């Protein structure tokens, strides 16, 4: 039974203990990943070639998708930028949110009638201001 | 009864407000209870513990319940769990019985909510008392069991396990925390990431990104189409609602609520599983199964009592073991941590007043949900009309506030939001499942501590099996869940091929 006790015993070096569990998890991911690749690669490739599997949904709206993927980071960046320029007043949030809410609403609105644009503009000013007043001033939530 | 002193008028006001805001979120198709909690998080930061909990529980109950409104009126489930409500709700609405259908659902929801709150009240302390005796070995096995259940219930077992492991790996990024007996070393990242990721990714920005931002990106991909209002139905005419519709439904109510509570207790399974299971059970046992799907009240009762029973059920493992039952409770666990609450086996015993106030809040939120929906349903039904182009920018804005303020002003948390928003959107397309990933992410770091500490102190692998009878039982359960899942998957595959052959 000596082979069992030698396999069974485990000593974890404290200096290296931060790597013990991650190594196990990575090994498992690697094994499982390879297994999934072997068993699923062919059917997946076949489905991709025949057009059964498509990454994007049918009739994807690439304009709105790409604009969204650009608008959100731009909003976060602007928020940080203004927040560093005018710190400790939550103005980074307020001044970045107004144009962001306006731009995103315009992007998502399909019928830009006069009525809708008025609602969008009013909402873009009122909603961030309301959140800023209530959360920053009454609830003391920190904002950039 | 000391806890009664803790319940101020503002406590009830916040529970009510939470419940109503939750209903509104639930009623808007695409918005879920998870998002309601995520968006309202910043409000809880400065509230006291009990007030914050009241708001969160209200949001949870309201968010799950609100989904029935668009399910009946527009044939779109407002939350995934109300999918089976559409089966009978929309046909009834088309017959002009919309208000009757709504009120049947509301009463069933209240019953389900109460039922599960009572089970929670009696069962969670027992489970916690039992779990107090757990050492690191059993705690690790408990997490292992939870993960095996999640993986086995995902669409593809292999991908479920894989997603769970990815979640665990993500949770390990950062330092091996000294306060947990680690050595304080960084791992799994390049040197330039250290200033940002020294403590790893924050839980809540990750969750808000995965559930909030990714939904917006998905919608953008689909072109943000407004719900067509052509098939919206008139509320005011048709057969009025009477309580006698529940005659003969006691068995259905009890069974569906039990199914909902039980499914809620299993970690990682969403509400849709609960309502689908109880709906099919009712169909199997019904006297008139052919009527179901064509506007039978019993279908509504089964669906709605099950998905509201989920609320109390999901809180059982959360409060007694620290294991979240679904995505909403995953966000709740983060919110509790912000309030300084450590949920786990010791929670109930050490915070008995908080525990009572939580159960009270849960019950009260159900009552408010009932009153608000039952008497104001006509007005609430109008929120399904709020256009998405107004709603979505506000949601992104609220997510940003929530993420930024979680650690008192860390911009990296806001970027985490975007990172995981995009990741969540891609995950859905390549077969990685978000539920196991999230549970893996939440439990990963504790799993590491329990696992490594057990091995360090005993020095042998076999201790994981031989530590105690409880460990053996847990292993039995783990094996059982794996075997069962393989059988279930085989069966459903067989059914699929048979159906394809027909």
UniProtKB/TrEMBL annotation, chain A:
<protein>
    <submittedName>
        <fullName>Tripartite tricarboxylate transporter</fullName>
    </submittedName>
</protein>
<dbReference type="InterPro" id="IPR009936">
    <property type="entry name" value="DUF1468"/>
</dbReference>
<keyword id="KW-0812">Transmembrane</keyword>
<dbReference type="Pfam" id="PF07331">
    <property type="entry name" value="TctB"/>
</dbReference>
<keyword id="KW-1133">Transmembrane helix</keyword>
<feature type="transmembrane region" description="Helical">
    <location>
        <begin position="85"/>
        <end position="108"/>
    </location>
</feature>
<feature type="transmembrane region" description="Helical">
    <location>
        <begin position="20"/>
        <end position="41"/>
    </location>
</feature>
<feature type="transmembrane region" description="Helical">
    <location>
        <begin position="62"/>
        <end position="79"/>
    </location>
</feature>
<feature type="transmembrane region" description="Helical">
    <location>
        <begin position="120"/>
        <end position="139"/>
    </location>
</feature>
<feature type="domain" description="DUF1468">
    <location>
        <begin position="20"/>
        <end position="144"/>
    </location>
</feature>
<keyword id="KW-0472">Membrane</keyword>
From TrEMBL, chain B:
<feature type="transmembrane region" description="Helical">
    <location>
        <begin position="434"/>
        <end position="452"/>
    </location>
</feature>
<feature type="domain" description="DUF112">
    <location>
        <begin position="13"/>
        <end position="439"/>
    </location>
</feature>
<keyword id="KW-0472">Membrane</keyword>
<dbReference type="InterPro" id="IPR002823">
    <property type="entry name" value="DUF112_TM"/>
</dbReference>
<feature type="transmembrane region" description="Helical">
    <location>
        <begin position="101"/>
        <end position="124"/>
    </location>
</feature>
<feature type="transmembrane region" description="Helical">
    <location>
        <begin position="412"/>
        <end position="427"/>
    </location>
</feature>
<keyword id="KW-0812">Transmembrane</keyword>
<feature type="transmembrane region" description="Helical">
    <location>
        <begin position="196"/>
        <end position="217"/>
    </location>
</feature>
<feature type="transmembrane region" description="Helical">
    <location>
        <begin position="157"/>
        <end position="176"/>
    </location>
</feature>
<dbReference type="Pfam" id="PF01970">
    <property type="entry name" value="TctA"/>
</dbReference>
<feature type="transmembrane region" description="Helical">
    <location>
        <begin position="12"/>
        <end position="45"/>
    </location>
</feature>
<feature type="transmembrane region" description="Helical">
    <location>
        <begin position="329"/>
        <end position="348"/>
    </location>
</feature>
<keyword id="KW-1133">Transmembrane helix</keyword>
<feature type="transmembrane region" description="Helical">
    <location>
        <begin position="354"/>
        <end position="377"/>
    </location>
</feature>
<feature type="transmembrane region" description="Helical">
    <location>
        <begin position="57"/>
        <end position="76"/>
    </location>
</feature>
<feature type="transmembrane region" description="Helical">
    <location>
        <begin position="472"/>
        <end position="488"/>
    </location>
</feature>
<feature type="transmembrane region" description="Helical">
    <location>
        <begin position="389"/>
        <end position="406"/>
    </location>
</feature>
<protein>
    <submittedName>
        <fullName>Tripartite tricarboxylate transporter permease</fullName>
    </submittedName>
</protein>
């Amino acid at each position: 039974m000596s082979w069992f006790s030698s396999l069974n015993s485990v000593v974890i070096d404290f200096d290296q203990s931060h790597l013990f569990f991650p190594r196990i998890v990575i090994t498992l991911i690697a094994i499982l990943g390879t297994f999934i690749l072997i068993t699923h690669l062919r059917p997946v490739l076949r489905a991709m070639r025949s057009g059964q599997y498509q990454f994007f949904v049918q009739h994807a709206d690439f304009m709105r998708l790409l604009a969204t993927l650009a608008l959100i980071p731009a909003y976060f960046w602007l928020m940080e930028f203004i927040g560093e320029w005018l710190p400790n007043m939550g103005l980074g949030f307020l001044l970045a949110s107004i144009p962001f809410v306006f731009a995103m609403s315009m992007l998502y609105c399909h019928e830009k009638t006069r009525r809708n644009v008025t609602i969008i503009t009013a909402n873009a000013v009122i909603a961030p201001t309301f959140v800023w007043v209530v959360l920053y001033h009454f609830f003391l939530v920190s904002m950039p | 009864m000391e806890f009664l002193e803790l319940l101020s008028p503002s406590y009830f006001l916040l529970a009510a407000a939470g419940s109503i805001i939750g209903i509104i979120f639930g009623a808007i198709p695409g918005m879920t209870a998870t998002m309601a909690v995520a968006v309202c998080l910043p409000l809880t930061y400065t509230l006291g513990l009990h007030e914050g909990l009241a708001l969160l529980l209200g949001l949870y109950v309201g968010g799950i319940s609100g989904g029935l409104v668009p399910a009946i009126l527009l044939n779109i489930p407002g939350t995934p769990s109300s999918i089976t409500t559409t089966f009978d709700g929309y046909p009834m609405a088309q017959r002009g019985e919309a208000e009757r259908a709504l009120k049947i659902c509301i009463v069933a929801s209240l019953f389900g909510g109460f039922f599960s709150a009572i089970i929670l009240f009696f069962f969670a302390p027992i489970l916690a008392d039992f779990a107090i005796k757990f050492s690191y070995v059993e705690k690790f096995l408990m997490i292992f069991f939870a993960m095996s259940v999640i993986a086995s219930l995902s669409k593809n077992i292999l991908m479920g396990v894989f997603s769970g492991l990815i979640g665990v790996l993500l949770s390990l990024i950062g330092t091996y925390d000294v306060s947990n007996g680690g050595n304080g070393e960084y791992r799994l990242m390049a040197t330039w990431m250290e200033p940002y990721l020294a403590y790893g990714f924050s839980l809540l920005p990750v969750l808000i990104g995965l559930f909030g931002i990714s939904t917006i990106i998905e919608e953008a991909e689909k072109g943000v189409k407004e719900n067509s209002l052509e098939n919206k139905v008139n509320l005011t005419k048709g057969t009025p609602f009477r309580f006698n519709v529940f005659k003969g439904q006691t068995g259905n109510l009890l069974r569906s609520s039990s199914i909902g509570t039980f499914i809620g207790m299993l970690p990682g399974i969403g509400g849709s599983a609960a309502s689908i299971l109880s709906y099919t059970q009712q169909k199997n046992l019904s006297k008139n199964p052919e009527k179901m799907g064509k506007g039978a009240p019993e279908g509504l009762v089964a669906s709605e009592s099950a998905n509201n029973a989920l609320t109390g059920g999901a809180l059982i493992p959360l409060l007694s073991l620290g294991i979240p039952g679904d995505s909403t409770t995953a966000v709740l666990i983060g919110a509790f941590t912000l309030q300084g609450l450590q949920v786990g086996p010791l929670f109930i015993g050490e915070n008995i007043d908080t525990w009572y106030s939580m159960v009270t809040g849960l019950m009260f939120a159900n009552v408010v949900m009932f009153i608000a929906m039952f008497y104001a349903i006509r007005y609430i039904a109008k929120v399904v009309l709020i256009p998405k182009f107004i709603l979505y920018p506000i949601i992104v804005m609220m997510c940003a506030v929530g993420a930024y303020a979680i650690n008192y002003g860390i911009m990296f948390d806001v970027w985490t939001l975007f990172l995981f928003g995009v990741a969540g959107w891609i995950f859905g397309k390549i077969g990685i499942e978000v539920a196991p990933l999230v549970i893996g992410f939440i439990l990963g770091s504790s799993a590491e501590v329990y696992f490594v500490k057990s091995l360090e102190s005993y020095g042998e692998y076999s201790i994981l099996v031989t530590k105690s009878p409880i460990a053996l039982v847990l292993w039995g359960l783990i094996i059982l869940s794996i075997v069962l899942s393989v059988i279930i998957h085989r069966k459903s595959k067989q059914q699929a091929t048979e159906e394809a052959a027909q």
